[in-house]
Amino acid sequence: MRNTVTKLKLYSTYVEAGFPSPADSYLEGAIDLNELLIKNPAATFLVRAKGESMIGAGIFEGSILVVDRSLEIRSGLICIAYVNGDFTVKRFVKRNTNRNVGSESRIELHAENESYSPIVIKAGDHFEVWGVVRSVITKTL
Amino acid sequence: MIALVDCNSFYASCERVFNPKLWGKPIVVLSNNDGCIVARSEEAKQVGIPMGLPLFKAKDLIKKHNVHVFSSNYTLYGDMSERVMTVLRQFTPNMKVYSVDEAFLDFSGFKEEKLAALMREIKNAVYKQTGLPVSVGLSHTKVLAKIFNHVAKKNKICQGVATCFEGERIDKVLKRTPIGEVWGVGRKSEVKMYDAGVKTAYDLKHFENTHLIQKRFTVAGRKLQDELRGISCVELDDIQKSKKNIISTRGFGKQVTDKNELREALASHVSKAAEKLRAQNSMAKSMNVFIRTNRFKPTEQVYDSFAIEFLSPTQNTFKMVRASSEALDQIFKPGVEYKKCGVSLSNLYDFNGSQFDLFSQNDSLKDLNLMSVMDSVNRKQGSETLKVATCGTTEDWKMLSQMKSKAYTTRVSELMEVN
Protein backbone atom coordinates (compact mmCIF):
# COMPACT_ATOMS: atom_id res chain seq x y z
CA MET A 1 0.00 0.00 0.00
CA ARG A 2 1.54 3.22 -1.00
CA ASN A 3 0.52 6.34 0.79
CA THR A 4 -0.76 8.22 -2.20
CA VAL A 5 -2.76 11.16 -1.11
CA THR A 6 -5.78 11.77 -3.26
CA LYS A 7 -7.75 14.51 -1.66
CA LEU A 8 -11.37 15.19 -2.34
CA LYS A 9 -12.22 18.81 -1.83
CA LEU A 10 -15.03 19.14 0.60
CA TYR A 11 -15.56 22.76 0.11
CA SER A 12 -13.99 25.38 -2.08
CA THR A 13 -14.81 28.46 -4.05
CA TYR A 14 -13.62 29.91 -7.30
CA VAL A 15 -11.36 32.85 -6.91
CA GLU A 16 -13.09 35.96 -8.08
CA ALA A 17 -11.16 39.02 -9.01
CA GLY A 18 -11.49 41.66 -6.38
CA PHE A 19 -13.19 40.19 -3.34
CA PRO A 20 -11.96 37.04 -1.68
CA SER A 21 -14.85 34.77 -0.78
CA PRO A 22 -15.79 35.01 2.88
CA ALA A 23 -16.33 31.25 2.83
CA ASP A 24 -12.61 30.66 2.25
CA SER A 25 -11.83 31.21 5.88
CA TYR A 26 -14.10 28.26 6.66
CA LEU A 27 -12.33 25.97 4.23
CA GLU A 28 -11.54 22.69 5.87
CA GLY A 29 -8.97 20.05 5.06
CA ALA A 30 -9.92 17.67 2.28
CA ILE A 31 -11.08 14.16 2.91
CA ASP A 32 -8.47 11.53 2.27
CA LEU A 33 -10.02 8.18 1.39
CA ASN A 34 -6.78 6.36 2.17
CA GLU A 35 -6.81 7.77 5.66
CA LEU A 36 -10.44 6.82 6.03
CA LEU A 37 -9.99 3.20 4.96
CA ILE A 38 -6.38 2.41 5.89
CA LYS A 39 -4.57 2.80 9.18
CA ASN A 40 -1.29 0.96 8.67
CA PRO A 41 -0.24 0.92 5.00
CA ALA A 42 2.72 -1.45 5.47
CA ALA A 43 0.43 -4.10 6.94
CA THR A 44 -2.53 -3.49 4.64
CA PHE A 45 -3.38 -5.78 1.75
CA LEU A 46 -6.27 -5.58 -0.66
CA VAL A 47 -8.17 -8.77 -1.38
CA ARG A 48 -11.04 -9.41 -3.76
CA ALA A 49 -14.18 -11.10 -2.37
CA LYS A 50 -15.81 -13.95 -4.26
CA GLY A 51 -19.19 -15.54 -3.71
CA GLU A 52 -22.05 -14.50 -1.48
CA SER A 53 -21.33 -15.96 1.91
CA MET A 54 -20.86 -12.53 3.49
CA ILE A 55 -23.57 -10.44 1.87
CA GLY A 56 -25.11 -9.78 5.29
CA ALA A 57 -21.94 -7.92 6.22
CA GLY A 58 -21.99 -5.81 3.08
CA ILE A 59 -19.41 -7.93 1.29
CA PHE A 60 -20.47 -8.81 -2.24
CA GLU A 61 -18.99 -10.64 -5.18
CA GLY A 62 -16.21 -8.36 -6.38
CA SER A 63 -15.98 -6.19 -3.25
CA ILE A 64 -12.46 -5.17 -2.34
CA LEU A 65 -11.55 -5.98 1.23
CA VAL A 66 -9.03 -3.79 3.02
CA VAL A 67 -7.17 -6.29 5.18
CA ASP A 68 -5.03 -5.06 8.04
CA ARG A 69 -2.59 -7.67 9.29
CA SER A 70 -1.44 -5.57 12.22
CA LEU A 71 -4.78 -5.82 14.05
CA GLU A 72 -5.23 -8.42 16.75
CA ILE A 73 -8.12 -10.75 16.06
CA ARG A 74 -11.00 -10.90 18.51
CA SER A 75 -14.45 -12.39 18.51
CA GLY A 76 -16.84 -10.52 16.26
CA LEU A 77 -14.33 -9.16 13.75
CA ILE A 78 -14.35 -10.19 10.11
CA CYS A 79 -11.15 -11.88 9.06
CA ILE A 80 -9.34 -13.52 6.21
CA ALA A 81 -8.50 -16.96 7.53
CA TYR A 82 -6.48 -19.75 6.10
CA VAL A 83 -8.18 -23.09 6.77
CA ASN A 84 -6.77 -26.36 5.54
CA GLY A 85 -5.39 -25.03 2.31
CA ASP A 86 -7.90 -22.34 1.44
CA PHE A 87 -8.44 -18.69 2.19
CA THR A 88 -11.86 -17.62 3.34
CA VAL A 89 -13.47 -14.40 4.57
CA LYS A 90 -15.76 -14.94 7.56
CA ARG A 91 -16.70 -13.52 10.91
CA PHE A 92 -14.41 -14.80 13.66
CA VAL A 93 -16.37 -16.12 16.63
CA LYS A 94 -14.90 -17.49 19.83
CA ARG A 95 -17.40 -19.71 21.69
CA ASN A 96 -17.14 -21.11 25.17
CA THR A 97 -17.86 -24.80 24.98
CA ASN A 98 -18.63 -25.10 28.66
CA ARG A 99 -20.33 -22.73 31.04
CA ASN A 100 -17.77 -23.23 33.76
CA VAL A 101 -15.34 -20.43 34.42
CA GLY A 102 -11.99 -20.88 32.68
CA SER A 103 -13.42 -23.43 30.34
CA GLU A 104 -12.20 -24.16 26.87
CA SER A 105 -13.34 -22.19 23.92
CA ARG A 106 -13.58 -23.05 20.29
CA ILE A 107 -13.22 -21.00 17.16
CA GLU A 108 -15.95 -20.75 14.57
CA LEU A 109 -16.04 -18.90 11.29
CA HIS A 110 -19.48 -17.57 10.56
CA ALA A 111 -20.88 -16.63 7.18
CA GLU A 112 -23.35 -13.78 6.93
CA ASN A 113 -25.79 -15.65 4.74
CA GLU A 114 -28.33 -18.16 5.99
CA SER A 115 -27.54 -20.73 3.37
CA TYR A 116 -24.02 -21.21 4.75
CA SER A 117 -23.30 -23.04 7.98
CA PRO A 118 -20.42 -22.04 10.27
CA ILE A 119 -16.99 -23.60 9.89
CA VAL A 120 -15.92 -25.07 13.22
CA ILE A 121 -12.17 -25.25 13.70
CA LYS A 122 -11.16 -28.65 15.04
CA ALA A 123 -7.96 -29.76 16.69
CA GLY A 124 -5.53 -30.71 13.97
CA ASP A 125 -6.92 -28.28 11.42
CA HIS A 126 -4.39 -26.07 9.74
CA PHE A 127 -5.83 -22.73 10.77
CA GLU A 128 -4.41 -19.24 10.80
CA VAL A 129 -5.89 -15.77 10.81
CA TRP A 130 -4.22 -14.03 7.87
CA GLY A 131 -5.57 -10.57 8.58
CA VAL A 132 -8.52 -8.55 9.82
CA VAL A 133 -10.91 -6.90 7.37
CA ARG A 134 -10.92 -3.24 8.30
CA SER A 135 -12.97 -1.80 5.44
CA VAL A 136 -14.98 -2.96 2.45
CA ILE A 137 -14.98 -1.14 -0.86
CA THR A 138 -17.91 -1.88 -3.12
CA LYS A 139 -18.45 -0.08 -6.38
CA THR A 140 -22.00 0.44 -7.54
CA LEU A 141 -21.18 1.09 -11.16
CA MET B 1 24.56 -1.81 19.31
CA ILE B 2 23.76 -2.79 15.77
CA ALA B 3 21.16 -5.25 14.57
CA LEU B 4 21.02 -6.89 11.21
CA VAL B 5 17.51 -7.94 10.23
CA ASP B 6 17.40 -10.31 7.29
CA CYS B 7 14.38 -11.99 5.69
CA ASN B 8 14.54 -15.79 5.54
CA SER B 9 14.49 -17.10 1.95
CA PHE B 10 12.97 -13.78 0.95
CA TYR B 11 11.62 -14.54 -2.55
CA ALA B 12 10.23 -17.93 -1.54
CA SER B 13 8.65 -16.42 1.58
CA CYS B 14 6.95 -13.69 -0.47
CA GLU B 15 5.33 -16.40 -2.57
CA ARG B 16 4.19 -18.21 0.58
CA VAL B 17 2.41 -15.20 2.04
CA PHE B 18 -0.16 -15.48 -0.72
CA ASN B 19 0.04 -19.22 -1.03
CA PRO B 20 0.34 -20.68 2.48
CA LYS B 21 0.06 -24.23 1.13
CA LEU B 22 3.71 -23.84 0.26
CA TRP B 23 4.93 -23.58 3.86
CA GLY B 24 7.34 -26.42 4.47
CA LYS B 25 7.56 -27.27 0.77
CA PRO B 26 10.62 -26.77 -1.40
CA ILE B 27 10.42 -23.66 -3.62
CA VAL B 28 12.79 -22.25 -6.21
CA VAL B 29 12.57 -18.91 -8.00
CA LEU B 30 14.00 -18.44 -11.48
CA SER B 31 15.99 -15.62 -13.01
CA ASN B 32 14.54 -13.35 -15.67
CA ASN B 33 13.53 -15.37 -18.67
CA ASP B 34 13.20 -18.48 -16.51
CA GLY B 35 16.86 -19.34 -17.12
CA CYS B 36 18.49 -20.27 -13.82
CA ILE B 37 17.58 -20.80 -10.19
CA VAL B 38 18.28 -17.58 -8.29
CA ALA B 39 16.55 -18.27 -4.99
CA ARG B 40 15.73 -21.35 -2.96
CA SER B 41 13.71 -22.05 0.13
CA GLU B 42 15.46 -23.89 2.96
CA GLU B 43 13.71 -27.11 1.89
CA ALA B 44 14.99 -26.72 -1.67
CA LYS B 45 18.52 -26.30 -0.36
CA GLN B 46 18.12 -29.44 1.70
CA VAL B 47 17.18 -31.59 -1.27
CA GLY B 48 20.41 -30.48 -2.89
CA ILE B 49 19.39 -27.95 -5.52
CA PRO B 50 22.39 -25.70 -6.11
CA MET B 51 22.18 -21.93 -6.59
CA GLY B 52 22.46 -20.74 -10.17
CA LEU B 53 21.61 -24.08 -11.73
CA PRO B 54 19.99 -23.68 -15.17
CA LEU B 55 16.35 -24.78 -15.06
CA PHE B 56 16.78 -27.47 -17.69
CA LYS B 57 19.49 -29.11 -15.58
CA ALA B 58 17.30 -28.99 -12.48
CA LYS B 59 14.29 -30.67 -14.10
CA ASP B 60 14.95 -34.11 -12.59
CA LEU B 61 15.53 -32.85 -9.06
CA ILE B 62 12.43 -30.68 -9.32
CA LYS B 63 10.31 -33.62 -10.36
CA LYS B 64 11.77 -36.02 -7.84
CA HIS B 65 11.26 -33.74 -4.84
CA ASN B 66 8.08 -32.06 -6.00
CA VAL B 67 9.70 -28.64 -5.96
CA HIS B 68 7.47 -25.64 -6.66
CA VAL B 69 8.91 -23.40 -9.34
CA PHE B 70 8.23 -19.68 -9.75
CA SER B 71 9.30 -17.13 -12.32
CA SER B 72 10.68 -14.08 -10.55
CA ASN B 73 8.01 -11.59 -9.57
CA TYR B 74 10.11 -8.54 -8.78
CA THR B 75 7.06 -6.31 -8.54
CA LEU B 76 5.78 -8.37 -5.65
CA TYR B 77 9.19 -8.78 -3.97
CA GLY B 78 9.88 -5.07 -4.25
CA ASP B 79 6.58 -4.15 -2.67
CA MET B 80 6.98 -6.68 0.15
CA SER B 81 10.49 -5.37 0.76
CA GLU B 82 9.18 -1.83 1.20
CA ARG B 83 6.64 -3.10 3.70
CA VAL B 84 9.31 -4.86 5.76
CA MET B 85 11.47 -1.73 5.79
CA THR B 86 8.51 0.41 6.85
CA VAL B 87 7.81 -1.88 9.79
CA LEU B 88 11.49 -1.86 10.79
CA ARG B 89 11.70 1.92 10.62
CA GLN B 90 9.17 2.11 13.46
CA PHE B 91 11.80 0.72 15.82
CA THR B 92 14.66 3.14 15.21
CA PRO B 93 15.25 6.21 13.10
CA ASN B 94 18.81 5.06 12.44
CA MET B 95 18.39 2.45 9.81
CA LYS B 96 20.10 1.60 6.57
CA VAL B 97 18.51 -0.66 4.01
CA TYR B 98 21.35 -2.84 2.87
CA SER B 99 19.59 -4.90 0.24
CA VAL B 100 16.10 -5.88 -0.82
CA ASP B 101 15.78 -8.19 2.19
CA GLU B 102 18.15 -6.90 4.86
CA ALA B 103 18.68 -3.77 6.90
CA PHE B 104 21.01 -2.56 9.65
CA LEU B 105 19.34 -0.94 12.64
CA ASP B 106 21.38 1.17 15.03
CA PHE B 107 20.35 0.85 18.68
CA SER B 108 23.12 2.90 20.25
CA GLY B 109 21.89 4.47 23.45
CA PHE B 110 19.21 1.87 24.06
CA LYS B 111 19.29 -0.03 27.34
CA GLU B 112 21.28 -3.20 26.78
CA GLU B 113 19.16 -5.41 29.01
CA LYS B 114 16.03 -4.50 27.09
CA LEU B 115 17.39 -5.16 23.65
CA ALA B 116 16.93 -8.93 23.53
CA ALA B 117 13.21 -8.51 24.12
CA LEU B 118 13.06 -5.70 21.59
CA MET B 119 14.68 -7.91 18.94
CA ARG B 120 12.02 -10.56 19.48
CA GLU B 121 9.40 -7.86 19.21
CA ILE B 122 10.87 -6.75 15.87
CA LYS B 123 10.86 -10.27 14.53
CA ASN B 124 7.26 -10.82 15.59
CA ALA B 125 6.08 -7.46 14.26
CA VAL B 126 7.52 -8.08 10.81
CA TYR B 127 5.92 -11.51 10.64
CA LYS B 128 2.58 -10.32 11.97
CA GLN B 129 2.32 -7.34 9.66
CA THR B 130 3.83 -8.66 6.46
CA GLY B 131 3.72 -12.45 6.82
CA LEU B 132 7.48 -12.67 6.25
CA PRO B 133 9.81 -14.48 8.65
CA VAL B 134 13.04 -12.68 9.55
CA SER B 135 16.18 -13.41 11.52
CA VAL B 136 17.80 -10.85 13.78
CA GLY B 137 21.43 -10.67 14.89
CA LEU B 138 22.50 -8.05 17.41
CA SER B 139 25.95 -7.20 18.68
CA HIS B 140 28.49 -4.38 19.00
CA THR B 141 29.30 -3.91 15.32
CA LYS B 142 27.92 -4.58 11.87
CA VAL B 143 30.36 -7.38 11.12
CA LEU B 144 29.43 -9.10 14.40
CA ALA B 145 25.71 -8.46 13.81
CA LYS B 146 26.05 -10.22 10.49
CA ILE B 147 27.73 -13.21 12.13
CA PHE B 148 25.04 -13.44 14.81
CA ASN B 149 22.33 -13.09 12.22
CA HIS B 150 23.76 -16.23 10.68
CA VAL B 151 23.68 -17.91 14.10
CA ALA B 152 20.04 -16.89 14.54
CA LYS B 153 19.17 -18.38 11.18
CA LYS B 154 21.01 -21.68 11.58
CA ASN B 155 20.36 -22.58 15.22
CA LYS B 156 16.80 -23.70 15.85
CA ILE B 157 17.03 -22.86 19.57
CA CYS B 158 17.55 -19.18 18.79
CA GLN B 159 14.09 -18.96 17.26
CA GLY B 160 15.35 -16.39 14.81
CA VAL B 161 17.00 -14.02 17.26
CA ALA B 162 20.61 -13.97 18.46
CA THR B 163 21.91 -11.19 20.70
CA CYS B 164 25.42 -11.21 22.03
CA PHE B 165 27.51 -8.59 23.82
CA GLU B 166 29.70 -10.69 26.03
CA GLY B 167 33.33 -11.30 24.96
CA GLU B 168 33.67 -14.99 25.78
CA ARG B 169 30.41 -15.94 24.10
CA ILE B 170 31.35 -13.90 21.06
CA ASP B 171 34.73 -15.65 20.85
CA LYS B 172 33.06 -19.05 21.04
CA VAL B 173 31.04 -18.23 17.95
CA LEU B 174 33.98 -16.60 16.16
CA LYS B 175 35.99 -19.80 16.58
CA ARG B 176 33.32 -21.67 14.67
CA THR B 177 33.13 -19.06 11.91
CA PRO B 178 35.39 -19.77 8.95
CA ILE B 179 37.12 -16.60 7.76
CA GLY B 180 35.54 -16.99 4.33
CA GLU B 181 32.09 -16.58 5.86
CA VAL B 182 32.93 -13.22 7.39
CA TRP B 183 31.24 -10.30 5.72
CA GLY B 184 33.51 -8.67 3.16
CA VAL B 185 36.02 -11.51 2.86
CA GLY B 186 36.00 -12.63 -0.75
CA ARG B 187 37.51 -15.71 -2.36
CA LYS B 188 40.83 -14.00 -2.96
CA SER B 189 41.33 -12.60 0.50
CA GLU B 190 40.19 -15.90 2.00
CA VAL B 191 43.18 -17.62 0.38
CA LYS B 192 45.50 -14.85 1.53
CA MET B 193 44.12 -15.08 5.06
CA TYR B 194 44.76 -18.81 5.12
CA ASP B 195 48.34 -18.18 4.01
CA ALA B 196 48.75 -15.82 6.95
CA GLY B 197 47.39 -18.52 9.26
CA VAL B 198 44.01 -16.89 9.71
CA LYS B 199 41.39 -19.63 9.36
CA THR B 200 38.53 -18.34 11.48
CA ALA B 201 37.03 -15.01 12.48
CA TYR B 202 38.55 -15.65 15.91
CA ASP B 203 42.03 -15.91 14.38
CA LEU B 204 41.66 -12.52 12.71
CA LYS B 205 40.30 -10.90 15.85
CA HIS B 206 43.28 -12.02 17.87
CA PHE B 207 45.93 -11.61 15.19
CA GLU B 208 48.60 -9.61 17.01
CA ASN B 209 50.46 -8.07 14.12
CA THR B 210 47.98 -5.44 13.02
CA HIS B 211 50.55 -3.85 10.71
CA LEU B 212 50.78 -7.05 8.75
CA ILE B 213 47.00 -7.13 8.44
CA GLN B 214 46.96 -3.61 7.11
CA LYS B 215 49.84 -4.32 4.76
CA ARG B 216 48.32 -7.43 3.27
CA PHE B 217 44.64 -6.59 3.41
CA THR B 218 44.70 -2.79 3.31
CA VAL B 219 42.61 -0.61 5.57
CA ALA B 220 39.62 -2.80 4.86
CA GLY B 221 41.33 -5.71 6.62
CA ARG B 222 42.15 -3.52 9.59
CA LYS B 223 38.59 -2.29 9.80
CA LEU B 224 37.33 -5.85 9.68
CA GLN B 225 39.60 -6.77 12.57
CA ASP B 226 38.39 -3.79 14.59
CA GLU B 227 34.78 -4.68 13.91
CA LEU B 228 35.42 -8.24 15.14
CA ARG B 229 36.96 -6.72 18.28
CA GLY B 230 33.76 -4.82 18.87
CA ILE B 231 34.98 -1.44 17.67
CA SER B 232 32.54 0.04 15.21
CA CYS B 233 34.33 1.50 12.22
CA VAL B 234 32.24 0.64 9.20
CA GLU B 235 29.74 3.48 9.08
CA LEU B 236 26.18 2.88 7.98
CA ASP B 237 26.79 5.46 5.30
CA ASP B 238 29.86 3.60 4.04
CA ILE B 239 27.81 0.58 3.24
CA GLN B 240 25.03 2.41 1.53
CA LYS B 241 24.62 0.82 -1.86
CA SER B 242 27.17 2.44 -4.08
CA LYS B 243 25.74 4.36 -6.97
CA LYS B 244 28.24 3.15 -9.45
CA ASN B 245 26.18 1.57 -12.18
CA ILE B 246 22.61 0.97 -13.17
CA ILE B 247 22.01 -1.92 -15.49
CA SER B 248 18.91 -3.07 -17.30
CA THR B 249 19.26 -6.16 -19.42
CA ARG B 250 17.31 -9.24 -20.21
CA GLY B 251 17.29 -12.13 -22.65
CA PHE B 252 14.56 -12.37 -25.25
CA GLY B 253 11.97 -15.10 -25.15
CA LYS B 254 13.00 -15.95 -28.72
CA GLN B 255 15.68 -15.06 -31.25
CA VAL B 256 15.30 -11.52 -32.55
CA THR B 257 16.53 -10.48 -35.99
CA ASP B 258 14.36 -7.42 -36.53
CA LYS B 259 16.11 -4.13 -35.89
CA ASN B 260 12.96 -2.37 -34.77
CA GLU B 261 12.21 -5.02 -32.20
CA LEU B 262 15.70 -4.49 -30.82
CA ARG B 263 15.17 -0.75 -30.86
CA GLU B 264 12.01 -1.12 -28.81
CA ALA B 265 13.63 -3.49 -26.37
CA LEU B 266 16.56 -1.16 -25.85
CA ALA B 267 14.27 1.84 -25.41
CA SER B 268 12.40 -0.08 -22.76
CA HIS B 269 15.62 -0.93 -20.93
CA VAL B 270 16.78 2.66 -21.15
CA SER B 271 13.44 3.82 -19.73
CA LYS B 272 13.71 1.45 -16.81
CA ALA B 273 17.30 2.37 -16.06
CA ALA B 274 16.51 6.08 -16.32
CA GLU B 275 13.57 5.69 -13.97
CA LYS B 276 15.85 4.03 -11.42
CA LEU B 277 18.35 6.80 -11.97
CA ARG B 278 15.77 9.45 -11.18
CA ALA B 279 14.44 7.51 -8.22
CA GLN B 280 17.87 7.66 -6.58
CA ASN B 281 18.27 11.27 -7.64
CA SER B 282 21.26 10.74 -9.89
CA MET B 283 22.32 11.69 -13.37
CA ALA B 284 24.47 9.65 -15.73
CA LYS B 285 27.35 10.83 -17.85
CA SER B 286 27.92 7.56 -19.70
CA MET B 287 25.70 4.91 -21.19
CA ASN B 288 26.66 1.61 -22.71
CA VAL B 289 24.40 -0.27 -25.11
CA PHE B 290 24.97 -3.91 -26.00
CA ILE B 291 23.39 -6.64 -28.12
CA ARG B 292 24.45 -10.25 -28.27
CA THR B 293 23.65 -13.71 -29.63
CA ASN B 294 22.83 -16.79 -27.58
CA ARG B 295 25.89 -17.65 -25.54
CA PHE B 296 24.81 -21.27 -25.19
CA LYS B 297 24.35 -21.94 -28.88
CA PRO B 298 27.21 -23.41 -30.88
CA THR B 299 26.69 -20.89 -33.69
CA GLU B 300 28.84 -17.87 -34.43
CA GLN B 301 28.95 -15.52 -31.47
CA VAL B 302 28.24 -11.86 -31.95
CA TYR B 303 28.64 -9.37 -29.16
CA ASP B 304 28.62 -5.69 -29.89
CA SER B 305 28.47 -2.74 -27.61
CA PHE B 306 28.53 0.98 -28.06
CA ALA B 307 29.53 3.53 -25.46
CA ILE B 308 27.87 6.91 -25.35
CA GLU B 309 29.31 9.85 -23.53
CA PHE B 310 26.79 12.61 -22.83
CA LEU B 311 27.99 16.20 -23.01
CA SER B 312 26.69 16.74 -19.50
CA PRO B 313 25.16 14.31 -17.02
CA THR B 314 21.54 13.57 -17.77
CA GLN B 315 18.49 11.82 -16.38
CA ASN B 316 16.35 12.54 -19.42
CA THR B 317 14.71 9.42 -20.84
CA PHE B 318 14.13 11.04 -24.24
CA LYS B 319 17.74 12.00 -24.68
CA MET B 320 18.88 8.55 -23.60
CA VAL B 321 16.42 6.64 -25.78
CA ARG B 322 17.52 8.69 -28.77
CA ALA B 323 21.14 7.89 -28.01
CA SER B 324 20.43 4.17 -27.60
CA SER B 325 18.68 4.17 -30.94
CA GLU B 326 21.65 5.80 -32.63
CA ALA B 327 23.97 3.36 -30.93
CA LEU B 328 21.94 0.46 -32.30
CA ASP B 329 22.31 1.82 -35.82
CA GLN B 330 26.05 1.62 -35.33
CA ILE B 331 26.24 -1.93 -34.07
CA PHE B 332 23.27 -3.82 -35.55
CA LYS B 333 24.11 -6.52 -38.08
CA PRO B 334 21.35 -7.82 -40.37
CA GLY B 335 20.77 -11.55 -40.32
CA VAL B 336 22.16 -12.10 -36.84
CA GLU B 337 19.88 -13.86 -34.35
CA TYR B 338 20.10 -11.75 -31.20
CA LYS B 339 19.18 -13.25 -27.86
CA LYS B 340 19.90 -10.50 -25.39
CA CYS B 341 20.33 -6.76 -25.17
CA GLY B 342 20.74 -4.19 -22.48
CA VAL B 343 22.06 -0.87 -21.30
CA SER B 344 24.16 0.23 -18.40
CA LEU B 345 24.44 3.72 -16.99
CA SER B 346 27.68 4.70 -15.34
CA ASN B 347 29.62 7.72 -14.23
CA LEU B 348 26.76 8.79 -12.00
CA TYR B 349 26.42 12.14 -10.29
CA ASP B 350 24.10 13.45 -7.64
CA PHE B 351 21.35 15.45 -9.21
CA ASN B 352 21.58 18.22 -6.66
CA GLY B 353 25.31 18.40 -6.36
CA SER B 354 26.12 18.39 -10.03
CA GLN B 355 27.89 21.25 -11.68
CA PHE B 356 25.59 22.85 -14.16
CA ASP B 357 27.38 24.01 -17.24
CA LEU B 358 25.72 27.02 -18.69
CA PHE B 359 26.90 26.34 -22.20
CA SER B 360 26.25 22.65 -22.47
CA GLN B 361 23.08 20.78 -23.09
CA ASN B 362 21.57 20.41 -19.70
CA ASP B 363 18.26 18.67 -19.31
CA SER B 364 15.58 21.21 -20.01
CA LEU B 365 13.24 21.96 -17.18
CA LYS B 366 10.31 21.04 -19.38
CA ASP B 367 11.69 17.56 -20.01
CA LEU B 368 12.47 17.04 -16.34
CA ASN B 369 8.94 17.97 -15.36
CA LEU B 370 7.60 15.55 -17.91
CA MET B 371 9.86 12.82 -16.50
CA SER B 372 8.56 13.35 -13.01
CA VAL B 373 4.95 13.18 -14.22
CA MET B 374 5.78 9.99 -16.12
CA ASP B 375 7.41 8.45 -13.05
CA SER B 376 4.53 9.25 -10.76
CA VAL B 377 1.93 7.93 -13.20
CA ASN B 378 3.93 4.74 -13.64
CA ARG B 379 4.26 4.33 -9.91
CA LYS B 380 0.54 4.63 -9.44
CA GLN B 381 -0.85 2.92 -12.51
CA GLY B 382 1.74 0.23 -12.98
CA SER B 383 5.09 0.38 -14.67
CA GLU B 384 5.15 1.36 -18.34
CA THR B 385 1.70 2.93 -18.36
CA LEU B 386 3.37 6.00 -19.78
CA LYS B 387 6.40 5.42 -21.93
CA VAL B 388 8.40 6.75 -24.81
CA ALA B 389 6.83 5.66 -28.10
CA THR B 390 10.05 4.00 -29.25
CA CYS B 391 9.40 1.30 -26.65
CA GLY B 392 6.69 -0.04 -28.93
CA THR B 393 3.38 -1.52 -27.99
CA THR B 394 3.67 -5.14 -29.01
CA GLU B 395 6.87 -6.21 -27.33
CA ASP B 396 7.34 -9.55 -29.01
CA TRP B 397 10.71 -9.66 -27.33
CA LYS B 398 9.31 -9.64 -23.78
CA MET B 399 10.81 -12.11 -21.43
CA LEU B 400 9.52 -15.54 -20.65
CA SER B 401 7.96 -15.77 -17.24
CA GLN B 402 5.59 -18.61 -17.45
CA MET B 403 5.40 -19.47 -13.79
CA LYS B 404 5.00 -16.01 -12.36
CA SER B 405 2.67 -15.42 -9.46
CA LYS B 406 0.34 -12.43 -9.53
CA ALA B 407 1.12 -8.83 -8.68
CA TYR B 408 -1.04 -9.33 -5.58
CA THR B 409 -0.06 -6.10 -3.90
CA THR B 410 0.30 -3.67 -6.76
CA ARG B 411 -2.41 -4.40 -9.32
CA VAL B 412 -6.13 -4.16 -8.67
CA SER B 413 -6.79 -6.67 -11.44
CA GLU B 414 -4.54 -9.29 -9.80
CA LEU B 415 -5.65 -9.20 -6.17
CA MET B 416 -5.82 -12.39 -4.17
CA GLU B 417 -9.37 -13.78 -4.21
CA VAL B 418 -11.23 -15.23 -1.24
CA ASN B 419 -14.57 -16.93 -0.89
Description:
The complex is a heterodimer of chains A (141) and B (419). Chain A is mainly beta and 141 residues long. Chain A has one helix at residues 33-37; strands at 7-8, 31-32, 44-49, 64-68, 78-83, 86-96, 105-110, 119-120, 127-137. In chain A, strand 6 (86-96) and strand 7 (105-110) form a beta hairpin. The longest helix of chain A has 5 residues, at 33-37. The two termini of chain A are 24 Å apart. Chain B has 419 residues and is of the alpha+beta class. In chain B, the strands form 3 sheets. In chain B, strands 5-6-1-7-8 form a 5-stranded mixed beta sheet. The longest helix of chain B has 21 residues, at 259-279. Chain B is globular, with a radius of gyration of 24 Å. Chain B starts with a strand and ends with a strand. The interface between A and B is medium-sized, with 28 and 20 residues. Strand 3 (44-49) of chain A pairs parallel with strand 13 (416-418) of chain B, so a sheet runs across the interface.
Summed up:
The complex is a heterodimer of chains A (141) and B (419). Chain A is 4% helix and 36% strand.
